[in-house]
Amino acid sequence: MSDNNKMNETMIGAPMYDELGKSNIRHILVRHEQSAAHMADGFGRVSRKPGVCFATSGPGATNLLTGIATAQADSAPMVAVTGQVPVAMIGKDAFQESDIIGMANPALKYSYQPRTPEEIPTMVKQGFYIAETGRPGPVLLDIPKDVQQNEANIPFPDEVRVPGYHPWTDPDMQNTARAVELLLSAQKPIILAGGGVIISSAFAELQSIAELLMIPVVTTFKGKGAFPEDHPLSLGPIGMHGHAEANKLMTEADCVLAIGTRFSDRSVGTFEEFEKNLKIIHMDVDPAEIGKNQTTSVAVVGDVRTSLRIFGKLLMDKAVRPSDDNPWLKHVKETKQYWRENLKLHPGEMGAAKILRKLRELLPKESIVTTEVGQHQMWASLFFDAIHPGTFFSSTGLGTMGWGFPAAIGAKTARPDVPVVDIAGDGSFNMTEHSLATAVLEDLPVIVFLINNYSLGMVAQWQRTFYDRRMVGVDLKKCPDYVKLAESYGAQGIRAQSMDELEKAIKDGLNSDVATVIDIPIDPEEDVLPFVAPGTGLKDMILPS
Amino acid sequence: MVWAILSIKVENKPGILFKVTHLFRSRNFNIDSISVGVTEDKKYSRMTITTIGDEKQITQIVKQLDKMIDTIEVRRLDVNNSVYRELVMFKIKVSKPEDSMEINKLASAYSAKTHDAKKESIIVEMTATPHQISAFEELAKKFGIKEMARTGITALEREEHEH
Fold first, then answer.
1. Which of A40, A401, A494, B71 could, after both became Cys, cross-link A51 (CB 3.0–4.6 A)?
2. Structural domains of chain A ordered from first start
3. What does pTM read for this prediction?
4. What CA–CA distance (Å, rounded) separates B144 from A57?
5. For the structural domain made of B83-157, what CATH number should be given?
6. pLDDT for A75-100, tens place per residue?
7. How far apart (Å, rounded) are the C-alpha atoms in residues A102 and A123?
8. Under which EC number(s) is this enzyme classified (chain B) (predicted)?
9. A219 - beta bridge partners?
């Protein structure tokens, strides 16, 4: 397979292979297959080309599953390659046999199991094509051992056709024109940017439309980084832990231009409540997302960058220039300012908002940030501004604890030129901390910004909020010591217990040649607020008291 | 709730029936009946799936099926403008000698064929709409139905009228 000149240069996996050793493809050894999948995912999201991960048959393959499902939930391009028992042994319950295609099917964009070596080149070519086009996703190549070992002289195809696959449709001009009319007729318009804006690199198109019309922009959590969060029109993410001003203004708007989003329950709360008194213009590459969770007034199906270009062109033709002192915009500015000044924050020196704002202050704007899953992730959403386009990534759909660190390592392989930071919580980092070995040995010096409350903080918060403080299974009891853990892998471990120590630690991490874990103990009782409780609408947001 | 007939052209490859049925399961849709066979072009198979749901669900099923890479064409047939039939076999109990004649009469009234006439049972084979099958089933109950097997619906849409 090494004759595929278009194949990405980085592969991540557990040992499998003799031919790979003779190629110039970079191989990165990991300590657990789940981490391999997350690394490939992180590489894929940052480079927008499929990351590749390898695993052996049976348990190796099943260990990839969580990573594959994570990539699928967040539309990340990935090609996973698994070993399989020889063709003649399939179905015989052979040693380390698993029906990985059957198991992974609902989490895959597509899958292949070649039965002869002749099939491999076309399948590889098609697999990469499918993984990275349209709405990206994971593709699995499950290759039986004898098919790997047999030799054949097969040309690599220049082009592939996949008859039932139509990754992009051209945006319908009439619908786009209707969308323009509808947005222009709104009294209180808002733009909701989703992950699709990042995937299709539609940053400039989005910004020019927002600025031309002076329309405020909220994002989904997945869309964080689709629009610069230091921009005057930016309100930040909506959702369960969205910004107060974003949630508030979203519920007040009468028309939303929603771009590249699937209206997840975590973003919009209850669907009925969300769409009440709201006209929805929905742009998405995936026709199956139109009307799935919400009622759409106008739908524009197609690559969102193309759709936004046409949309922008139609606006230019109309020579639109609304004044920037209309009552809605004035209200938006006031609401934003009010919440930016009045949201009550944790009073301690090492409160989540303070430490994340310190990180933002010291981190170059082009740095790439990933997160783990939990309270720290939502604090990052609230208090860490993503400024440069496409610099913030998180497991938003599946919510996979343990994703952020290996994904950061994968991101670093794609962008070795910029700092990469995993904003982590202790419970989540715990799940893939073995990747420290990979970060150190493969010379991928990422920074783990470990917001440590020695507990499974999000669950603890729900137990405090909804279960009368009956705390069950959430206390991690100061185990392990993350400084010693980092050092045992040959990484740099720094504990930061004051703002001065934190500032020094971040600078040390940025200057370090090896991976750094900054262990930041915080108040284990600090909650993430605002909070939209599950099953309620965005207007029912719980605020800090 | 409406009853819909979906006609799905897929690549004639192993594993596709699994993927289609898996989609119904994982998206919480139901399959009322399913039939599969090769088309005029041996590269493709046609699956005919009938399902019950509200309009929104059925629209969503069609979209999700359409999105599948293995599906070449997905159509929701217009029930009023399609020929749809199902093949069913009944093994009907024969308790007394005159039952045999009565079952034969009933079968011929429904243009059904009889096979394997034995002292204890007769197999009746009919191709009909689900509605006709239910009607026959009701009438056959008085003899006693020992076993029943049905294929699920298959269907083709009528050509547009030429004016």
1. A40
2. 10-149 (3.40.50.970), 173-341 (3.40.50.1220), 344-529 (3.40.50.970)
3. 0.94
4. 53
5. 3.30.70.1150
6. 999 999 999 999 999 999 999 999 99
7. 18
8. 2.2.1.6
9. A193, A237
